[in-house]
Write a structure and sequence with these properties.
The complex is a heterodimer. Chain A is mainly alpha-helical. Chain A has ten helices and no strands. Chain B has two domains: 47 residues; 55 residues. Chain B is built from three helices and no strands. Classes of the chains: A mainly alpha, B mainly alpha. At the A-B interface, helix 2, helix 3, helix 7 and helix 8 of A face helix 1 and helix 2 of B.
Chain lengths: 190, 116
Amino acid sequence: MINDTSGDAELICAYLRGDGRAFEILYHRYKRQFYGYLNNLLRGSSIDPDDVFEETWLKVIDKLPKYRDEGRFSAWLFRLGHNIFIDKVRKNGSAVMQSIDRGDMPELPEPEHRQPSSEMENIELGREIEKAVQSLPAEQREVFLLRQQELSFKEIAEIQNCPVNTVLSRMHYAVKNLRIFLADSRSLVK
Amino acid sequence: MKKYLKLESLCSADVPPELDLRILAASKMRQTALRRRRRLRLAAGGFAAAAAFLVAAGVGVLPGLHSPRSVREDSAALAAMSDWTNVEQAGYNLASEISGSSSFFELADSRTNFEV
């Protein structure tokens, strides 16, 4: 008998056996995470996150009978979403990538170390970070957002189809760029 | 895993209800199709089993249903043939007996005539 605490693989098996409720549980478990990820990834681009979200879930429905329980379902879901996003970028041409990769990061010195745990409670800082994330190059932003979803670097490397070292490097630069951006915006406020 | 700061607004967002409805409706449609396919597969399996059973019966894998009747038919036909042979044999015997008697009588007649 399945319920809200059942594992992903168990839910998928139940769905394939004909239990419609299993898919609903699975969907409600990941929909907010995935939707949030797409919205942050595609903000400012001409690609509609709703389209990618819907297409990805339709693909999930279509491919579930062939799903192999070799990793986490969430990693599989994000990989499908990434592939659909890339397909759309290819179809729409490089204009989309340019709008995503604005590359308007200011070259500023690294800020001094802070205690972010106390600052994170500040809503204003949260907004600043969101803005800073939007300014990251697409690949760095994707790595940063996937790390926010608690995916491992190995899983992200599989999603981006690149070596783990590349992902680590992207994450390093993403964090570095965010620091620079935040330091810049703080200095402007002062 | 190294701990990173998590921002709720970066991690999740509310999904529009119409998207929910569309996706869940699609999953139900897919499920119906899967169920139909499973039923068809079961029906096809049953049909194949029935066909195999009929073929097996036809070629005599199940002798209880097929052979006795055939043997009965065969033995009846053989009996009829053997009956016919008996009749023929009887007819032949009778014919030779009659011809033998008649030749005996002819011989007896000619001897009588000779003696007279």
